[in-house]
Amino acid sequence: MKRFAIFLGCTIPARQPNYELSARKTLEKLDVELVDLDNFTCCCPAPIQSINLESSQAIAAYNICLAEEAGLDIVALCNGCFESLAMANAALKKDKKLKAEINKVLAKVGKEFQGTIEVKHFLQVLIEDIGLKKIQEKVTKPLSSLKVAPFYGCHSLRPSKLLQLDDPERPQIFENLIESLGAEPLEYRNKLKCCGGLLKGISDDTALELAREKLANTNKAGADCISTLCPFCFVALDIGQIQVKGKFQEIYDMPILHYSELLALALGVAPEELALRSHKIKADKVLEKIA
Amino acid sequence: MLHHNVKKAEAISFSEEVTCRHGGETLTACYQCGTCASSCPVARLDSRFNPREILKLALLGEKDEVLSGDAIWLCTSCFNCQERCPQNVEIAELIFALRNIAIEAGNSPNIYADFGGALIADGRIVAISKFVEKKREEFGLPPLKPVGVEDLNKILEATGFTKPEQKEASK
Amino acid sequence: MEQPKVGVFLSDCGKQLSEILDFDALTNFVKGVPNVALIARGSEFWRGKGLQTIVDAVKTGKINRVVVAESITKVSDVNIAQAVEDAGLNSYLVEVLDIKDHCAWPHRNAPKEATEKAKAMLLSAIERAKLLEPIEKLEFPALKSALVIGGGIGGMQTAVDLADLGFEVNLIEKQPFLGGLAARAGRFFPTDDCAICIQPPSSDVKTITHTSRKCVYRSGLSEIPNLNILTNASVVAVEGVPGNYKVTIEKKPRYVDADKCVACDKCVSVCPVEAPDEYNANLTNRKAIYINVPSVYPQIYTIDEDACKFKDCAKCVSACPTNAIDLDQKPEQVTYNVGSIIVATGFKEFDASAIKEYHYDNYPDVITNLELARMIDSFGPTGGAIVRPSDGKPAKKIVFVQCAGSRDRRYNPYCSGICCMISLKNASLIKEANPDAEVSICYIDIRTTGREHEYYYERARDMGIKFIKGRPTEIYADEEKGKLIVDVEDALLKRFLDLEADLVVLATAMVPPEGTAELAEILDIDLEADGFFKEYNAKLRPTETKQKGIFLCGGATFPKDAPTTSLHAHSAALKAAKFLNSGKIVKDLRTAIINDEYCGDCEFCPVMCPFGAITLEPTTENHFVARVNDLLCEGCGVCVGTCPLNAIELKNSTPNQMAAQIDALLSVNGTSKPLVLAICCQECGHTAVDSSGMAKMEYPANVRIIKVPCAGIVRVNQILEAFKAGAQGVMIVGCKTDGCHYEVGSEKAENKADSAKVLLKEYGIEPERLEMFKMVYIEGAQFAEAAQMMTERVAKLGTLKLMGDS
Ligand SMILES: Cc1cc2nc3c(=O)[nH]c(=O)nc-3n(C[C@H](O)[C@H](O)[C@H](O)COP(=O)(O)OP(=O)(O)OC[C@H]3O[C@@H](n4cnc5c(N)ncnc54)[C@H](O)[C@@H]3O)c2cc1C
Ligand code: SF4
Ligand code: SF4
After folding, report:
1. Looking at chain C, which residues constitute the CATH 3.30.70.3270 domain(s)?
2. What DSSP character marks residue C197?
3. Chain B partners of A66 at a C-beta cutoff of 8 Å?
4. Which of A37, B68, C206, C557 has the fewest CB atoms inside 10 Å of its own CB, making it the most exposed?
């Protein structure tokens, strides 16, 4: 049985029990053991990188060190956590000078970055450590006829030079994973563009406009739901719909489901066990379609 | 991602100030082709922001305009531009570098003071309330593990982290 | 060998030197040196009466070694050597030193010290002269023939030139037809005439005129008696040496007998198999048996092996009225013996599929300039109509995207140089034929640097072609509109444009063709970082390679337009002709010699030799020994400096000779300053010393100069010996790394200086006493400065104490 240190970050435990719950349940069903380590901190994503890039990198490295000490690879659920940690991990493995610099800082807290573990996205664990075949085999309630618009978000793919999750221009792994559940992945315009989440509180109008465009494009493509990989994308598109309705009187009623939630449903987890009630846009439409 | 650590003379130009910083190294490779601008989801919605223009201003040494304007804060860090730049300019990281300089100079939207403050206090940027902890229990989620706040603060100190200032009137 | 009898000729350069140096003292000094048989003083010895004095002394047998103290030695050297050779003495028994620029002028304010230094210089030259050995010449016949690889306009023109000059020429082309890019490009800027014409050979007695330019098929190229053209052919092996290469060529079967085919097209009408027509950018299909266009050379049909059903069909065999078709043809190997090889393999368009956001691989309406050229061509698949390949409908809105894969660090960092002009030409041709077409060009910078080129840009604007300064981020298909959208920012307006297009034309980068690296390997010549063939010297010898008998032309070295390709082709022909002209190769054997006993077959020297002159060859079982190819060896001595076992010596730069020179140079000080030895390469290093002297820049006379062929010859133990011989400081002066005349010598010397410093420390010698300098001729000031600096540095360190000294 493969073991991972689960990196929850800040937003998921505070605001998205639906993501955490479905991720824990599905990974367990797929024979992955998750370990909750002590002392993980904020991953220091873009907002903190904006304040001090070096501090952010050092703290990301600190978190990696905790997993190194436990001898575990990290699985991150949030795109932001994945990006901060995976970028730091890749950069430090590649760049000796940077590693020396950061290790000087880490020495103050008795840590040393070694470069012995991998930081993986939830998606990556599914593809690389479990495999499409096994997922297909474990599917008991195929999501046939469900049209799913995959939304990668930004920080699962980019910067690709460091993250190397998939081809940044034509990624396929999310689509393949959707297919493995029996659902149909959809193509839509600007699939790889940003949800606007990080502009919230700085330029709310632009942030909302970006979310609105996603909703419009997926709606046009005929999606039954949008599937996300990141708590920020989820919020931007879920709560975003309420705001879009308020501001533009546009009603999309587009359920947003984390991939882990779709996966859970396909693996036969009962909807009631999934904290679906924390969604602002109810998933009922989807549940009906796959019932 | 290489920190040059170059100690420059007093009268260094703004573009040099940027290139010898973490994240700022690739500035001078920019030849203003505009690929970044057309890649940018924000630039076409908000005329205050254009990554190509920011780089041009930085290259020309328009320090005040870059650091005190709204523009640098409008980047969503989506990395679309960086992915496609033909000169391998690390644009999104350059914007971080510019924001770092601006914050050191005391310029930033108030929200960053909140982020910085939360990080220092809790080691998290989203607080966990009692209510949340109860909710987690209800959902059958395991209790949260302690956060290494002490270590984190030592690291912040060692890396010269300055908490952004909260300003009276927000931007 | 006969006892050395040295003649010393002291020139005072029209009395100017005797005002500084004490010539009587010099004469007296030289008199006392053993083996000096003659001393003569004069005002110049490199021409006229002075030179005659030398010649007479040689002829009478009074002397058999010549030492001349002169100025401008780089010129006088040549004259004196030639005269001495004519007088019957080997020209390598001459040593010329520059007592003006290396002594009198730079030290003119310290005449006494200068005189002492001049003594040391003279002694050093005499000691060297005594040890000099005659160097023989190697002479052997060179074949008056050439192989030209690549039948584009570059290769064809070189081949015709060489054939016109009377050489036997073999032109081989990998494709079934000649012409290369020009055969597909339609019309060419800057003349706006057809791309595929060349100047006919002078063997065409009837129609050749001063003004004639002819299509390749009617140029008479094929009828030149001494030009042999082979298509479907590529080089598989090359053996031999410059002047005598044995080349093995593999010829793919054409399945059509060239001697019988009458190009009647009957075969095509019966052939049932269709295949994409690559020549026409796959815009149409052709048959499995085909000819590109009727006007190609050779006008012989060919069979596409991958498409043809051979024995299962064979319809063409019976249809052919002349029985020309032979489906049993097999690949053949032929060998040619040639004196020289010219590489003219051109370039190709970059595969734009790599730029995924442009969707060249999955949108049929995204095409390249070469594909567009096929559409513009009225003989082409669309009869000149500009259409959308996806549905064949006319393309009304056309957007060009410049720098697709060029100036892009992800793919090709360089500017391909010709694509701006190609797009301007093609856009104008479209607009001319269809004034209603909306044509836009997205560019980063427009580059139109040749004569008449800017006019294309002006004309394009005048015609209403729109220019958008911006590189598109992506091209996407708008299904509703049924158009492509080019997503670009006009950087001048800071405005985002979603340009609608029926057709998007990518001005792709130009890159080396397939097989370039393999060919470089076969020919043992180098490639540049960009993957194109590397010229010997980009500024002065742009058609030569590190292999003396191998030349380059056209796009093989970098993307070029046709005018530049022509220049290059004619230049390569001239260089090859110069090389082959006399029918013999003459070479001084100033080469490296291997001491078999010491050679430990470590493989350092074969790798390091910049000319590929050293190979390891088996002697007895399990034992290899390095062998120097005298013809390829350029006498730089980089191998000498590389060999860890001191198994290599360079003739007339042997350790003994150098040690004798150094001892002599350091035997007299005459100044109050510590002696500094400057080991200067004969190229940039030594000439920088010249130029500092010529400009009368001053540095102290304790700095003594020894000339070596290349800084790369210096060995670590020689540095140590120099210190033992009395040097308090040692400078190594070589070319700039990029400008090293022997490619790697200067870099190697620098590495060696670094490792020597470590060793010096172990011997108790301060590493700062050794320094490597790199300069070019014009940097005389830098030399003077370095000499001054080293003197001061060493003086500060105090007298050197060698281990064992008390
Ligand atoms: C789309 C396009 C439009 C152009 N328009 C213009 C224009 O308007 N004006 C202008 O001045 N220039 C133009 N050019 C440039 C022009 O085509 C070149 O300058 C010219 O073709 C270079 O000639 P070349 O013989 O060096 O190379 P090529 O034309 O590339 O010929 C090289 C030949 O060598 C053959 N070959 C390659 N490798 C081997 C091998 N290993 N063994 C045997 N044979 C080999 C190839 O098959 C080819 O036939 C254009 C180029 C392109 C691509
Ligand atoms: S894409 Fe790169 S080179 Fe082009 S303008 Fe933006 S940063 Fe500069
Ligand atoms: S010639 Fe023009 S299109 Fe071609 S690479 Fe250079 S600038 Fe770009």
Report:
1. 590-647
2. E
3. 148
4. C206
Q: Is the CB of C442 under 6 A from ligand 3?
A: no
Predicted ipTM of the assembly: 0.94
C415 lines ligand 3 (CB under 6 A): yes
Question: Are the C-beta atoms of residues C67 and C129 closer than 8 Å to each other?
Answer: yes
- In chain C, list all ranges with CATH 3.50.50.60: 145-251+341-345+521-580, 349-511
Task: Could you please state the CATH topology (level 3) that the domain comprising C1-135 is classified under.
Answer: Rossmann fold (3.40.50)
Instruction: Determine the CATH number of domain C590-647.
Output: 3.30.70.3270
**Total-model pTM:** 0.91
Amino acid sitting at position C581: N
Among C173, C62, C80, CA closest to C125: C80
DSSP result, C602-655: -SHHHHH-TT--EEEEE-STT-EEEEE-TTT-----HHHHH-TT--EEETT--H
Rounded to the nearest whole angstrom, what is the distance from the C-alpha of residue C220 to the centroid of ligand 1? 21
Strand, helix or coil for residue A61? helix
Q: Which CATH architecture has domain A2-122?
A: Up-down Bundle (1.20)
Alpha carbons within 13 angstroms on the beta-carbon side of residue C596 total 8
CATH architecture of the domain with residue range A132-290: 3-Layer(aba) Sandwich (3.40)
Tell whether B16 is within 8 A of chain C (Cβ).
Answer: no
Residue C369 CA, ligand 3 centroid: distance in Å = 13
DSSP letters for C687-755: HHHHHHHHTT----TTEEEEEES-GGG--HHHHHHHHHTT-SEEEEEE--GGG-TTTTHHHHHHHHHHH
Structure confidence at residue C805 (pLDDT): 58
Closest Cα to residue C278, out of C299, C293, C257? C293
| Torsion angles phi and psi, residue A92, rounded to 5 | -70, -30
Tokens 């960092």, located at residue: C413
Q: Hey, whose CA ends up nearest to atom 8 of ligand 3?
A: C403
C-alpha torsion angle, residues A4, A5, A7, A8 (rounded to 10):
90
| Assigned CATH class of C653-798 | alpha beta
Strands in C242-283 per DSSP E:
244-251, 274-276
One-letter amino acid of C572: A
Question: Which residue, A38, A126, A120, is CA-closest to A75?
Answer: A120
In chain B, CATH 1.10.1060.10 sits at 12-104
Domain ranges of chain A: 2-122, 132-290
Q: In this complex, do A170 and C476 lie within 8 Å of one another by their Cβ atoms?
A: no
Domain spanning B12-104, CATH architecture: Orthogonal Bundle (1.10)
Atom of ligand 3 nearest to the CA of C420: 2
Check CB contact under 8 Å for C356 and A189.
no
Cis peptide before C190 (omega within 30 of 0): yes
Q: What is the pLDDT of residues C143-160, one digit of tens each?
A: 999 999 999 999 999 999
CA distance C277 to chain A (A): 30
**pLDDT tens readout for residues C723-779:** 999 999 999 999 999 889 998 999 999 999 999 999 999 888 999 999 999 999 999
| Structure token digits, residue C734 | 């070589």
Q: Which superfamily does CATH assign the domain made up of C349-511 to?
A: FAD/NAD(P)-binding domain (3.50.50.60)
Torsion of CA C85, C88, C94, C96, to 10 degrees: -60
Structure tokens at A30: 């797929």
Residue A151 near residue A233 (C-beta atoms within 8 A) = yes
Query: What residues pair up with C773 in beta bridges, in sequence order?
Result: C733
What are residue C710's DSSP bridge partners? Answer: none
Amino acid at C772: M
- CATH level 3 topology of C145-251+341-345+521-580: FAD/NAD(P)-binding domain (3.50.50)
CA–CA separation, C317 vs C687, rounded Å?
A: 71
